């Protein structure tokens, strides 16, 4: 009996491919809850690993992007990707390239886990409703439905981990020459709570949510739709059967990341600037001693857009876009492929596309 209990969850994996079959198993026996727990854990682990691997691989570019986003146009230290990376290396050493990555991974691991898991659940739910609405049990997700599922996943994941994102941003812009305010992630969280209140942990949340809808939505929609198109049409001999090679999947992920970040990037800039509001040392850390703290104060998202464009021009909304583009291409690609590879290793047969 004990051996049967061990085998049952694994054998059940291959039988559960949608919400209807999950409900059927739940009605027929008590093994369904055990499967659900195992499946959830595997999916969360795969998403977390994918996030950690992909973000660490591009940590130097992530830090440079944030420094470019928040620096003052009258006190330029970082002029581009190569120069910026060299400047960080020269002034802060190798460790400076990965500053804030610990807090970043602490945020991205749960964020990625929740995001991928939420997308799977949202996709199954939306597909089930779509099949019921159309009366066609063989109906598949359309690109628009995938966009909706991705948007839901992005909103849930961003909201759940947003305080970590704010703290990561503040840790990242600190340099060796800056007056240190935060010794680490937990110290930063407690300091913000004590000095600025709990609402400060969600500064810039609105543009983040607005930005995450096209960003995550397009990432999933483009990735899944592109994979589906390649499998069905098999162009240029890229696909021999129903499986795509790792290289092809990386290319799909790169295309998805490029489209998503280009559309949502201005909102990311505004979010990052709003996160710096209330940080007493932000003026000297970010904008230079010649600028007053008031230049960093915004009453809201629209005000931040207006002041940024008025004082620095429309191009300021795309500060850091080049290193971000260089970062996004491998990051999103690695995240998608890592997620699928880890799920294969863990023996989960149901993938995102399914």
Automatic annotation (TrEMBL):
InterPro entries found in the cross-reference section: MCP, MCP_dom_sf, MCP_transmembrane
**Has the keyword Signal been applied to this entry?**
no
A Pfam family the protein falls into: Mito_carr
Biological process (GO) annotations? transmembrane transport
Q: How does this protein sit in the membrane? A: Multi-pass membrane protein
Outline the Solcar repeats, range by range: 38-125, 141-229, 244-345
Q: Which PROSITE patterns match?
A: SOLCAR (PS50920)
Say which domain of life the source belongs to. Answer: Eukaryota
Query: Any idea which UniProt keywords this protein has?
Result: Membrane, Mitochondrion, Mitochondrion inner membrane, Repeat, Transmembrane, Transmembrane helix, Transport
Alphabetical GO CC annotations of the entry are: mitochondrial inner membrane
Q: Does the keyword Mitochondrion apply?
A: yes
What's the protein name?
Mitochondrial adenine nucleotide transporter ADNT1
């Amino acid at each position: 009996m004990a051996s049967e209990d061990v085998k049952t969850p694994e054998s059940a994996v291959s039988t559960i491919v949608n919400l209807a079959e999950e409900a059927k198993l739940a009605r027929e026996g008590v093994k369904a809850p055990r499967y659900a727990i195992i499946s959830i854990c595997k999916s969360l682990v795969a998403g977390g690993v994918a996030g950690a691997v992909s973000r660490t691989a591009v940590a130097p570019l992530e830090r440079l992007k944030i420094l470019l986003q928040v620096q003052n146009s009258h006190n330029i230290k970082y002029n581009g990707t190569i120069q910026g990376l060299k400047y960080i290396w020269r002034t802060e050493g190798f460790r400076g390239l990965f500053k804030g990555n610990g807090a970043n991974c602490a945020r991205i691991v749960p964020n990625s886990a929740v995001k991928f898991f939420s997308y799977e659940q949202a996709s199954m739910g939306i597909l089930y409703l779509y099949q019921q609405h159309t009366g066609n049990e063989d109906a598949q997700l359309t690109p628009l439905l995938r966009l909706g599922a991705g948007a839901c996943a992005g909103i849930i994941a961003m909201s759940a981990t947003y305080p970590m994102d704010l703290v990561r941003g503040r840790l990242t812009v600190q340099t060796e020459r800056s007056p240190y305010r935060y010794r680490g992630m937990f110290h930063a969280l407690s300091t913000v709570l004590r000095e600025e209140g709990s609402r400060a942990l969600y500064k810039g949340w609105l543009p983040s949510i607005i930005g995450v809808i096209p960003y995550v939505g397009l990432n999933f929609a483009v990735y899944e739709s592109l994979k589906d198109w390649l499998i069905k049409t098999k162009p240029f001999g890229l696909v021999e059967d129903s499986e795509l090679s790792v290289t092809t999947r990386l290319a799909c992920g790169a295309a998805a990341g490029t489209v998503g970040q280009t559309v949502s990037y201005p909102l990311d800039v505004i979010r990052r600037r709003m996160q710096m509001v209330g940080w007493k040392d932000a003026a000297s850390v970010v904008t230079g001693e010649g600028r007053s703290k008031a230049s960093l104060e915004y009453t809201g998202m629209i005000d931040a857009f207006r002041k940024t464009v008025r004082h620095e021009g429309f191009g300021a909304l795309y500060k850091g876009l080049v290193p971000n583009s260089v970062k996004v291409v491998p990051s999103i690609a690695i995240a998608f492929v890592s997620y699928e590879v880890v799920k294969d290793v863990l023996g989960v047969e149901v993938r995102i596309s399914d």
